[in-house]
């Protein structure tokens, strides 16, 4: 009995100490929340769970694209302010200057390119919104395929510098090199019947090439991760912070392409997830308000539904409800999140900003809360692309309904931000408390698409880092 009492007393003391420590950290954050520098210092040091909504291509900063372009003999189109690939016939850049020649001593051009590749210094003007500027960046940036590992290294090290545990990087593989040319060459047409269209695709050259595509993708991931480890000196005494960050990948079909290409890329992703545990999910990308994306939305959901039911369940996280009144016709605001959840089998929703416009949104919120369907909130992205910030953001709607929440970066390189910046916005603009922020950062691991063993190890490590962090206060 004495031993039991002693144990109980020890556990109670430990609980009190942990509670006191957390209260101290919460009090510290509350006193500095309006001091940008002090808050930045505090939140940058704060342990963080996962960044679950991070597009690899958009995570890279403009300066890196230019550096790689100079080193790899890429070309610069000065009129379009774009990086271009050299001619495939070996004639170099033709009439265009090489990046090295164009950028040599030309700080004005360098600044213009950085602004073109990002939202830096962007000022809205008639006929060209931040939404337009954001999505236009993806057509002017570029790098050799061999830079895949460099991109992963940069993104994971930026996360490591901020004490982030885990990254899920959305990345497109095999689409533009193989799938899209094949769809155009064969002129494959979809009927809208997911079962019929699946058979059509699998009976085509795409079906025959699928095993080779998956094998190439796995090889490319192997090379990229080896390159990342090399660049970050992982496994050595000089290892950089990014080495500690666990990285997984999501397949990302482009929803603005022909339906056959979208479906083929989903099928490819489904098979890739089956064969390689580093690919843990799928997510449709590109502007949800695009004409094709809107027109084919139901067809895309049906495609995912068919694969999920017939090829086996996979993890799905969908951009849904990344819309707002005025951007699209009001009818387009009524059901995208509902369909993503109920037809697309989405376990997480990216953005979800138009939730209150959805028909029966209170029932939808309850369903999301009951089934632990998390919403990935990207504050800077929602502000820049949709003009949604402060009390206009539906954060409180999700919070009050008990829907799980996690903050993420979306495209940190294009937006010129990091995850700490998003945490600062959450605290200063939404009034998120320390305990709430801590819950949300744990959600970045709890709702990660990883196996249970990896997830448990990450959470255990985060527990230990929070205890050490909070002892400072």
Give a quick set of tags describing it.
four-stranded parallel β-sheet, 22 helices, globular, 10 strands, alpha/beta, 473 residues, 2 domains, TIM Barrel, disordered N terminus
Task: Give a written overview of the molecule.
The protein is of the alpha/beta class. It has two domains: 48-58 and 145-470, TIM Barrel; 62-139, no CATH class. 54% of the residues lie in helices and 10% in strands. The chain has helices spanning 2-32, 36-45, 56-59, 62-71, 99-103, 107-116, 130-136, 148-161, 175-186, 194-202, 205-231, 259-275, 291-295, 297-310, 336-342, 361-370, 379-386, 395-401, 412-415, 419-430, 434-446, 452-470, and strands at residues 48-55, 75-77, 82-84, 164-171, 246-251, 279-282, 317-320, 348-351, 374-377, 405-407. The strands form three sheets. The chain has a four-stranded parallel beta sheet with strand order 1-4-5-6. α8 (148-161) crosses α11 (205-231). Mean pLDDT is 94; it is low at 1-19.
Indicate the low-confidence ranges by residue numbers.
1-19
CATH class category name of the largest domain: Alpha Beta
How would you characterize the largest beta sheet?
4 strands, parallel
CATH architecture annotation name of the largest domain: Alpha-Beta Barrel
Got a strand count?
10
Fourth-tier CATH superfamily name of the largest domain: Metal-dependent hydrolases
The backbone outline, from C-alpha atoms, is globular
**Beta fraction of the residues?**
5-15%
Annotation field: number of helices:
22
- Compute the gyration radius: what is it? 23 Å
How many structural domains can be distinguished in the coordinates? 2
| First and last CA, distance | 36 Å
Task: Please give the order of strands in the largest beta sheet.
Answer: 1-4-5-6
Classify the fold: give the CATH topology of the largest domain.
TIM Barrel
SS content category: alpha/beta
The whole-number mean of residue pLDDT values reads 94
Q: What share of the residues lie within helices? A: 40-55%
């Amino acid at each position: 009995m004495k031993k039991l009492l002693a144990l109980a007393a020890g556990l109670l003391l430990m609980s009190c100490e942990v509670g006191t420590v957390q209260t101290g950290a919460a009090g510290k954050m509350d006193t500095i929340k309006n001091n940008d520098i002090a808050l930045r210092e505090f939140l940058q040091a704060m342990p963080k769970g996962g960044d679950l909504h991070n597009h690899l291509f958009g995570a890279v900063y403009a300066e890196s694209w230019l550096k790689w372009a100079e080193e790899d003999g890429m070309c610069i189109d000065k009129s379009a302010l774009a990086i271009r690939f050299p001619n495939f016939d070996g004639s170099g850049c033709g009439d265009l200057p090489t990046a090295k020649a164009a950028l040599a001593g030309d700080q004005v051009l360098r600044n213009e390119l950085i602004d073109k590749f990002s939202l830096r210094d962007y000022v809205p003007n008639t006929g060209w919104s931040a939404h337009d500027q954001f999505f236009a960046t993806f057509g002017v940036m570029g790098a050799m395929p061999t830079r895949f590992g460099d991109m992963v290294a940069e993104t994971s090290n930026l996360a490591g510098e901020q004490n982030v545990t885990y990254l899920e990087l959305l990345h497109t593989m095999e689409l533009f090199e193989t799938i899209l040319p094949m769809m155009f060459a064969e002129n494959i047409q979809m009927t809208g019947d997911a079962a019929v269209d699946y058979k059509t695709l699998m009976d085509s050259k795409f079906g025959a090439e699928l095993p080779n595509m998956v094998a190439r993708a796995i090889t490319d991931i192997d090379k990229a991760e080896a390159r990342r480890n090399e660049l970050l000196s992982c496994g050595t005494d000089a290892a950089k912070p990014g080495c500690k960050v666990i990285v997984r990948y999501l397949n990302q079909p482009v929803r603005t392409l022909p339906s056959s290409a979208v479906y083929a890329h989903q099928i490819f992703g489904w098979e890739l997830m089956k064969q390689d545990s580093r690919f843990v999910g799928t997510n449709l990308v590109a502007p949800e308000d695009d004409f094709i994306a809107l027109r084919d939305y139901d067809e895309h959901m049906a495609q995912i539904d068919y694969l999920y039911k017939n090829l086996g369940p996979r993890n799905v996280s969908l951009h849904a409800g990344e819309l707002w009144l005025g951007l699209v016709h009001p009818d387009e605001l009524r059901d995208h999140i509902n369909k993503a959840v109920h037809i697309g089998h989405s376990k997480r929703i990216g953005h979800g900003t138009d939730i209150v416009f959805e028909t029966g949104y209170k029932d939808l919120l309850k369903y999301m809360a009951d089934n632990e369907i998390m919403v990935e909130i990207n504050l800077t992205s929602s502000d820049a692309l949709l003009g949604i910030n402060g009390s206009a953001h539906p954060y409180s709607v999700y919070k009050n309904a008990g829907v799980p929440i996690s903050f993420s970066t979306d495209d940190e390189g294009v937006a010129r931000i990091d995850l700490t910046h998003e945490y600062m916005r959450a605290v200063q603009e939404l009034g998120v408390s320390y305990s709430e922020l801590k819950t949300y950062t744990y959600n970045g691991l709890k709702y990660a698409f990883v196996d249970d063993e990896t997830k448990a190890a990450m959470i255990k490590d985060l527990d230990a880092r929070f205890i050490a962090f909070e002892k400072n206060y």
